[in-house]
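Fold sample X.
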Amino acid sequence: GWSDLVISQDGKYAYLVGRFYSRDVAIVDLEARELVTTIESGSRPREIVLSPDGTRAYVCDELDDRVSVLDVGQETIITTIPVGGAPLGIALSANGATAYVTNSEDGTVSVIDLESLSVTDTIAVGSQPRGIVISHVTTNTAYITNSGDNTISILDLSTNTQIGTIPT
């Protein structure tokens, strides 16, 4: 089965990743209810997000320690961005200018500037971070689930620092 999917803003397409040891990003036409194509990403793509304008998708490639950048219209990978070990989760800032990627092996979050497509900062968090969400209320706060120590890290995105931890 697939581990993650996103749907285009117009509701016409779904983008799927994460079949066990697959390298594929699948594009599905939801109106026609058929597979359009598959695109080879990196080893074991785990999570996918779309840019706010829907033109790009960002895929965490767990075994390659990178994020693949997909041009949605051209259905091609246009570049890859090296991040920390075993990237599993990704979230975009409210304005879509920055991506935050959890690196499970390193206990870090990579901060990616999506204009330059480069890592601009690395934030230490808990052990084995996985999921990440950015608050809709305070868009400068992110929450990271840390499976290695059963905590939630709280990040201040205006300073790229961890400001608290919640035991779970």
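Fold sample Y, listed below.
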Amino acid sequence: MTASVGIDIGSTVTKGALWLNGELSLYMTPTGWTPEESGKKAAERVTRLAHIKNERLLHITATGYGRNIFSADKKVTEITCHAAGAHFLVPEAVAVLDIGGQDSKAIRLDSDGKVSDFVMNDKCAAGTGRFLQNMAVNLGCSLDDFAQLDDTLTYKPINSMCTVFAESEVVGLLAGGVSKEAISLALLDSVAERAANLLSRVSDTGPVCFTGGCARNSLLASIIERKIKRRVIAPEKAQYAGAIGAALIGAGL
């Protein structure tokens, strides 16, 4: 039986998913400067994890921003793949919120888990994983530290949504004696506000599946949940949603 491999080449991380006989094998690697090589590495490693030795038994579907420079049997947009992956991971979800390294997107799903509408923020880094990563560097902490914050802290909202201006504002707040914890919480709030606004353009009721690397931050998920007053579900395999969707599509599911 042919195994279906999904490769999601993102701006920061490349994910691989292999679907065979109802079982998933998953692998993740930094994209780095050579998306094609990271895609090949993900395909090789996920195949090894599934103990498949004959590459002719593989059907590869590529997605993500680097899909067009990667050799694959099929290439599918990340919107379609994230919808399929999210529906598989959270069948009750009626919408998908994906905050990746380079862009953010909100997708409305129909009753079959197919895309019925979507919007993207791909013109500005604000509200993305890269925005948070850059701010963490400025604060001398890591993204994991953001998830450990006390959300009862009082904080002043970050007014600038442009990454460059926000960095200047953060420097000013630090100079003014504002704690790193309060600034970090304000940054999470600003990303959550952008995410809530994006989501409101395609869907206003029902459970939301939160995907992408930022979905690992449970505090961010809870802040978004409070803002939209809807259930936000970040599944364990949230970061693999695009790759899983690509694998399922390649398998004809």
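Sample Y note: Strands lie at 3-9, 13-20, 23-30, 58-63, 74-75, 95-99, 104-109, 115-121, 208-211, 232-233.
Also: The chain is about 40% helix and 20% strand.
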